[in-house]
Specification:
Shape: globular
CATH superfamily of the largest domain: Type I PLP-dependent aspartate aminotransferase-like (Major domain)
Helix content: 40-55%
CATH topology of the largest domain: Aspartate Aminotransferase, domain 2
Radius of gyration: 20 Å
Oligomer: single chain
CATH architecture of the largest domain: 3-Layer(aba) Sandwich
CATH class of the largest domain: Alpha Beta
Order of helices and strands: HEHEHEHEHEHEHEHEHHHEEEHEEEH
Number of strands: 14
Number of helices: 13
Length: 364
């Protein structure tokens, strides 16, 4: 019997009071029907999708540069993460999960009876791993290592060498590496000449990569998520899905396949939006030396440490009540001195929200 929420952040996100300007979520500004002309004609109520709607599976495979038998379609990226964990982890197994981190990843492992060990990505290291600490945390019972890149909550990406090293650590342990890349496409599209963060889909070995159309393309309502995994693991994940929701929603799968046909236009929309928002965020960060960042904002979230604040929970509540701006307190991500600010919404609303945050920080 559950006596406490397995994902306190998700509970807070669903039950908190609405604010005039919401910078606490992280979904990209939602698309409208005008962003996908012709989409209503693609809507049908049925689809042959017992093991995935083939046009959607093929579109994801092409987008990811992998064979279709390595693709598992899921209900959002969170659904992909859960299926991967459930396919690989059972009671008594050990799982390593990054810290700070996104609490549904810990909650899913706990629900399945695994022992969770947190592997630090400390602010003092720019939210990068000490790989020796990761190696030291591995036990004979370790079955899975879970990371996000770009990192949720900080937006910091892992480089290719680190991803290779993490894969090798998992491989030597007889374990798998789960890499949540749900923010990656938005970062890549707005890189503006900077290095594009690498994808773990390019790695050989025991690696599962998850993603969705939500954080980078503004299609949260479709709940289109997926995993790219070694073919045997992908098949195990499909069989786990038999126990969860059996098959995907036919209308959602059809509309998601349609969206992939128009991905270049959606990508251009993302580039315009995120590029403008990152310019605002960088100017804001430069003007606030009391907000310490691991690196200049590059993702659709930023996670500054607030100088002089051991726990930002009260500050976040005051900012919402007095200034009408919602941000996420760092305690939900195991970093209580920080706040997470979304850079994924309407540019004008973000600009006003950052102006209000400036006043709040000056008057605290």
């Amino acid at each position: 019997m559950l006596t406490a929420p397995l994902a306190p952040y998700m509970l807070w996100a669903k039950t908190r009071e609405a604010a005039e300007i919401d910078l606490a979520g992280s979904n990209l500004l939602p698309c409208t029907l005008e962003d996908l002309p012709g989409i209503t004609e693609a809507l049908q109520l049925t689809a042959p999708n017992d093991n995935g709607f083939a046009p959607l599976v093929e579109s994801i495979a092409a987008h990811s540069g992998v064979a279709p038998d390595r693709v598992v379609t899921t209900t959002g990226c969170s659904g992909a993460n859960f299926l991967a964990i459930a396919a690989l982890v059972g009671a008594g197994d050990d799982v390593l999960v990054e810290q700070p981190g996104y609490d549904p990843l810990v909650g899913a492992c706990t629900l399945l009876g695994a022992r969770v060990t947190r592997i630090p990505r400390p602010f003092s290291r720019g939210f990068q791993f000490d790989l020796d600490a990761v190696r030291a945390a591995v036990t004979p019972a370790t079955r899975l290592i879970i990371v996000t890149t770009p990192h949720n909550p900080s937006g910091v990406s892992l480089d290719a060498a680190t991803l290779r090293d993490l894969t090798a650590i998992a491989d030597r342990a007889g374990a798998h590496l789960l890499v949540d890349e749900v923010y990656r496409d938005a970062v890549s599209l707005a890189a503006d000449g900077a290095a594009v963060p690498p994808s773990a889909t390019a790695l050989d070995g025991p690696v599962i990569v998850t993603n969705s159309l939500t954080k980078s393309y503004g299609l949260n309502g479709l709940r289109c998520g997926w995993a790219v995994a070694p073919a045997p693991v992908a098949e195990r994940m499909r069989r786990v899905r038999d126990l969860v929701d059996a098959v995907g929603s036919a209308p959602s799968d059809r509309l998601s396949a349609f969206a992939f046909q128009h991905l270049p236009a959606l990508a251009a929309r993302t580039t315009r939006l995120v590029t403008a928002n990152l310019a605002l965020a960088r100017a804001f960060a430069d003007a606030h030396p009391d907000l310490r960042l691991a690196e200049p904002p590059r993702a659709t979230v930023m996670f500054p440490e607030v100088s002089g604040a051991a726990d930002t929970t009260g500050l976040v509540a005051d900012i919402a009540a007095q200034y009408g701006v919602a941000v996420a307190p760092g305690r939900f991500f195991d970093a209580p001195a920080h706040i997470r600010i979304s850079l994924a919404g309407h540019t004008g609303r973000l600009a006003e929200g950052l102006r209000r945050l400036t006043r709040a920080l000056a008057e605290r």
